[in-house]
Design a protein that fits this description.
By secondary structure, this protein is an alpha/beta fold. It has helices at residues 16-31, 41-48, 52-64, 96-99, 119-135, 158-172, 188-196, 220-233, 252-270, 314-321, 337-346, 380-396, 415-418, and strands at residues 68-71, 75-78, 110-117, 139-147, 176-179, 201-204, 214-218, 239-245, 302-306, 328-331, 356-361, 374-377, 403-407, 409-412, 443-446, 449-452. The two termini are 47 Å apart.
Length: 456
């Protein structure tokens, strides 16, 4: 290929930056994992024999397609394998070699998505999973474990109901399973039965300890820590953790987010500047064993809202109405954001003047909540595509090493933490990363990492 710096196009007739972008995309597919960094602009300038401006145009082209992200003072980070070639041909499309290798169980032509029926989350995942499966000639079968969100009609035994759904999937002979588990520890046995039958499983979001299968999600500890770092950088010293309770078990996701929250507030507990007040064990709303990683001084600042709750939840309203109410809330799941905001408004509190709010997930951005909510953005579209990729790899190579893929998150700063200051920045989803407080720019990023490891 001719990368001569003379003239706007090479022999193929394409702009030079497109040819550079194509080669970098091939490099990412063959040699780079998510979280790796590309060579510097100067190194790429020397390699391709083009101007630095052309290199920057190529990187910008890749960034527009969510393949890379430029991090200040660090370089250009690979976000994940390409999902569509620059020519417009989807890279998820099976090659002729792939088509020649039928996967175990592929005769059914169906992949089961087993997850709670959370409307926004379901849309965010299914719209990425279904077309990716279709490119491989597979169909999507939705298997809901229970309705999700405040006021949902949760079964009396949600853990048992999830097990029943997995059993029915086992009997149906599907080609593979994508599982968003809420009771993974209790339902490991059913999952192992599926895998023993040759049905591969890819876990979404919630890791299941001691289950040897692929997993994709975010670094929940870092996401929670980042939310607290944003709030403490804005001067908050009393931050409450709000979760959602389904049944009597806690997921690994919540364990990690609680740990990140605890460490994010530890500095202010250690030097005596925390405003949380003395611990009140009688005010606790969760089992003590859930709080192993949380200092006692924060126990009465951890609240899990039962999923069946519709309308006011007494402990939440009591916390927010007290004279020693927290100055900020870290809502660790989008499922309860609306209920929390309704409670805040009912009490006449102003956001962020009286209380600041950060949530995790950011599926709530589709609801038009006012004020707009600062959020740790989970890349659900990327999770959907990469989950299908992991499943296809496992179907083709059942004995390949187990993969745990951590996807990057972004802090999207909006009115619920900085008020009108958000109007002076870019309020869209493409804001550039800046500092940990997110001011004045409206985003910060945590890197993506991919590790290969065996069963835990």
């Amino acid at each position: 290929m001719n990368y001569s710096p003379n003239g706007p196009r090479n022999r193929s007739g394409n702009p030079r930056y497109i040819e550079v972008a194509r080669q970098l995309e091939r490099d990412m597919e063959e040699r780079y994992a998510p979280g790796d960094f590309l060579p510097s602009e100067r190194e790429l300038h020397r390699r391709f024999g083009v101007t630095v401006k052309t290199v920057r145009s190529a990187l910008a082209h890749l960034s527009e397609r969510s393949l890379v992200q430029k991090l200040p003072a660090r370089g250009t980070m690979v976000l994940g394998p390409a999902t569509a070639a620059i020519s417009g041909t989807p890279s998820d499309t099976p090659s002729r070699g792939d088509a020649a290798r039928p996967a175990a169980g592929a005769c059914s032509g169906t992949v089961a998505l087993v997850m709670p029926l959370s409307p926004y989350l379901l849309i965010a995942l299914a719209r990425g999973i279904e077309p990716a499966l279709r490119r491989h000639g597979l169909r999507l079968m939705l298997c809901g474990t229970y309705p999700a969100g405040p006021g949902s009609d949760v079964p009396d035994d949600p853990q048992g109901h999830e097990a029943e759904v997995l059993e029915s999937v086992s009997d149906s002979g599907v080609a593979g399973v994508l599982w968003w588990s809420m009771f993974g520890r209790a339902n490991r046995g059913v999952a192992r039965k599926l895998m023993a039958q040759g049905t591969p499983i890819v876990l979404l979001d919630n890791l299941v300890p001691h289950l040897a299968c692929d997993w994709i999600g975010i670094d929940d500890y870092s996401a929670s820590y980042q939310a607290c770092a944003h709030l403490t950088a804005l001067g908050h010293r009393d931050v409450a953790f709000i979760g959602e309770r389904v049944g009597d078990t806690i997921t690994v996701t919540y364990e990690e987010r609680l740990s990140g929250y605890a460490d994010g507030m530890m500095e202010f507990l250690a030097n005596g500047t925390s405003d949380a007040g003395p611990p009140d064990e009688s005010a606790m709303t969760v089992p003590t064993e859930w709080l192993r990683e949380v200092p006692a001084a924060l126990h009465n600042r951890v609240l899990f809202v039962p999923q069946q709750t519709l309308g006011e939840y007494g402990p939440l309203a009591g916390m927010l109405a007290s004279e020693r109410r927290p100055t900020a809330l870290y809502i660790s799941t989008d499922n309860v954001t609306s209920l929390v905001m309704q409670t805040i408004h009912k009490l006449g509190l102003r956001v962020p003047d009286d209380i600041a709010v950060v949530t995790t997930g950011d599926v709530g951005r589709f609801t038009g909540e006012q004020p707009s909510i600062t959020a740790i953005r989970q890349p659900f579209d990327m999770m959907a595509r990469r989950a299908v990729r992991l499943l296809m790899q496992r179907m083709r190579e059942p004995d390949r090493p187990i993969q745990h893929v951590h996807l990057p998150t972004r802090l999207i700063v909006r009115q619920s933490t900085v008020g009108d200051a958000a109007q002076h920045g870019r309020a869209d989803d493409d804001a550039e990363p800046h500092n940990r407080a997110g001011v004045p720019h409206l985003a910060a990023s945590a890197g993506a990492t991919l590790t290969e490891r065996g069963a835990q």
